[in-house]
Design brief:
The chain has 554 residues and is α+β, with helices and mostly antiparallel strands. The protein has 15 helices and 29 strands. The protein has a seven-stranded mixed beta sheet with strand order 3-13-14-22-17-16-15. A hairpin with a 5-residue loop joins strand 6 and strand 7. GO terms for molecular function: ATP binding; bis(5'-nucleosyl)-tetraphosphatase (asymmetrical) activity; glycine-tRNA ligase activity. Its main location: cytoplasm. Its EC number is 6.1.1.14. Homodimer.
Length: 554
């Protein structure tokens, strides 16, 4: 619920996971900073992805008949690329959202993703109204009171005597406008006005808004020096396809992975880090023979879905959704989204974590031949009014020669494209929990905890002396050092009552607390407390590094 999301956002700030960017100056919409714990969490997310997809992937020990006998390599490419890349890829002409603005208050919203619900006024006339439920109305007010206004608007609908019986429906602005006109008998007065309740001004026609950030290369600043911040990392892989083939002796099928920042000038950044203007992607381009591409597509769909559930995302909040044929990009023979039920979404709604797309040979061919368009179901180079290619490709041969089958072909591509920030946010939302646990006096208290998977938890163990004397701090610091030396992220805390110290660790998701107490001097053992079960067991000091390492492996 929205209430739960407020608690999560507050915890993220209080404990140093996520801050609003440039907060002391009032912040910039769509930009976020990770604090001391957030940076560790996000590093762990990236690291888990890189390890599972690239460094621990082992084609040699995979059984010969298993699909896992392919190679995986990585690259790290530039954020600013040759402008021709975006012309040939289609982003220059096509990477836009439809936007509607308000003349009066200068608010704006995305016209292709409206959420509208049919509400009936008390006298029985059907009225089409916006849903203003926080998080669902993608409307960006210019003032920083955005959230307050959307709550006020929600109240306005509630109080209008209209009965919000129907579920919200997704539609674009034109369909919405038509629906309003039809249900109102075509009256001009019913033409939708600004959804800002403090404004209600006239709206513009929907117009295209390119999402790529522009920048200038060099000092002259003419149109020819225009460049773009990449809106996806994928193109850096495609343009290096030949370099990777020539330098690393990979054989098809193989995958190239990349993690890096991408930028999109989103019209309505919202829902915490879910839709930001600067974000990080974790993308794989998997190159294969066209005949095997459908099998590889299914392989990656399932493999990527499992990755999230293996890291603790529960199956009842995660779904794999195949796109309908009309949702597919023209060149794609299949796309599926991995989606998560974020708490800021309405009941029954899911938000995209990752898309897995079968992209055919579209990308490599675009960079060979020039921007491609679909003509009667066939991809052809788009021509300008002189019959020349609208945007020229590189002219380089990006086909692949299989020396076993003696066949030359342009590989097909399967693209699992994930967001590091969205995955991190899903792990945060999934981890957040409240239960009851006894405090130092045995009284039951609400306990906030983050149930991070041990691989993702920013800190794996906290070491406490029960009291600050009798050599307990020295012993505890010794254990702390032995864990640090083993490369395990640990912390030491001797401040406040033991119960308070447990709570602090629960709230940041530390899976285990290790306490040195009065018995340690005699039995040379410590108590290990489990965050989730609250179970406490005695472990010999000499075995603590092994025990924590074993628990981290799961
Ligand atoms: P959406 O429909 O939510 O805008 P998309 O379909 O445009 O997303 P892709 O272009 O498929 O997204 O990008 C791949 C992944 O990159 C997404 O699944 C998401 O995890 C991440 N991503 C895309 N846009 C953003 C953003 N504005 N903020 C954070 N992550 C993003």
């Amino acid at each position: 619920s929205a209430n739960q999301m407020d608690k999560i956002v507050a915890l993220c700030k209080r404990r140093g996971f996520v801050f609003q960017d440039s907060e002391i100056y009032g912040g910039v919409n769509g930009f976020w900073d990770y604090g001391p714990l957030g940076v560790e969490l996000k590093r762990n997310v990236r690291e888990a992805w890189w390890q599972d997809m690239v460094s621990r992937h082992d084609p040699l020990t995979a059984p010969a008949d298993s699909p896992d006998a392919y190679q995986m390599v990585g690259v790290e490419t530039s954020i600013i690329m040759h402008p021709q890349v975006w012309k040939c890829s289609g982003h220059y002409d096509l990477f836009h959202d439809m936007m509607v603005d308000c003349h009066a208050c200068k608010g704006r919203f995305r016209a292709d993703h409206l959420k509208v619900k049919l509400v009936r006024s008390t006298d029985g006339d059907p009225v089409v109204a916006w849903t203003f439920m926080p998080g669902s109305a993608e409307f960006d007010w210019p003032s920083s009171g955005d959230k307050k206004l959307s709550k006020a608007a929600a109240a306005a609908v509630e109080n209008s005597g209209q009965d919000a019986e129907a579920a919200p429906v997704d539609m674009d602005f034109d369909t919405y406008r038509k629906t309003v006109l039809e249900t109102s008998g075509g009256s001009e007065a019913a033409i939708p006005h600004c959804p800002n309740p403090a404004c209600r001004g006239k709206l513009t026609e929907p117009r295209e808004f390119n999402l790529m950030f522009k920048t200038i290369l060099g000092a002259l600043g003419t149109k020819d020096d225009e460049a773009f911040l990449r809106p996806e990392t994928a193109q850096g892989i495609f343009v290096n396809f030949k370099n990777v083939c020539d330098s690393s002796r990979v054989k098809i099928p193989f995958g190239v992975a990349q993690i890096g920042k991408s930028f999109r000038n989103e019209i309505t950044p919202r829902n915490f880090t879910f839709r930001s203007r600067e974000f990080e992607q974790m993308e794989i381009e998997f190159f294969c023979h066209p005949d095997a591409s459908q099998d590889w597509y299914r392989y990656w769909r399932d493999r990527r879905f499992r990755w999230y559930s293996d890291l603790g995302i529960s199956q009842d909040r995660l779904q794999l959704r195949d796109h309908d044929p009309e949702e597919l990009a023209h060149y794609s023979c299949g796309t599926a989204d991995i989606e998560y039920r974020f708490p800021f979404l309405d009941e029954g709604e899911y938000g995209e974590l990752e898309g897995i797309a079968h992209r055919g040979d579209f990308d490599l061919r675009s960079h060979m031949e020039g921007k491609l368009v679909d003509r009667d179901g066939k991809l052809e180079v788009e021509l300008n009014e002189h019959g020349q290619p609208k945007y020229r490709g590189s002219g380089k041969d990006l086909s692949y020669f299989d020396d076993q089958s003696r066949e030359r072909f342009v590989p097909n591509v399967i693209e699992p494209s994930a967001g590091a920030d969205r995955a991190t946010l899903a792990f945060i939302c999934e981890a957040f929990a409240e239960d009851e646990a006894p405090d130092d006096k045995g009284k039951m208290q609400v306990r906030t905890l983050m149930k991070f998977h041990p691989r993702l938890a920013p800190i794996k163990a906290a070491i406490f002396p029960l009291i600050k004397k009798e050599g307990q701090p020295e012993k505890a610091k010794e254990i702390y050092r032995s864990l640090k030396e083993a490369g395990i992220a640990v912390t030491y805390d001797e401040q406040a009552a033991i119960g308070r110290r447990y709570r602090r660790q629960d709230e940041i998701g530390t899976p285990w607390c290790i306490t040195v107490d009065g018995d340690t001097a005699s039995d040379n053992a410590v108590t290990v407390r489990d965050r989730d079960s609250l179970e406490q067991v005695r472990v010999p000091v000499d075995e603590i590094v092994d025990e924590i390492s074993r628990r981290m492996r799961g």
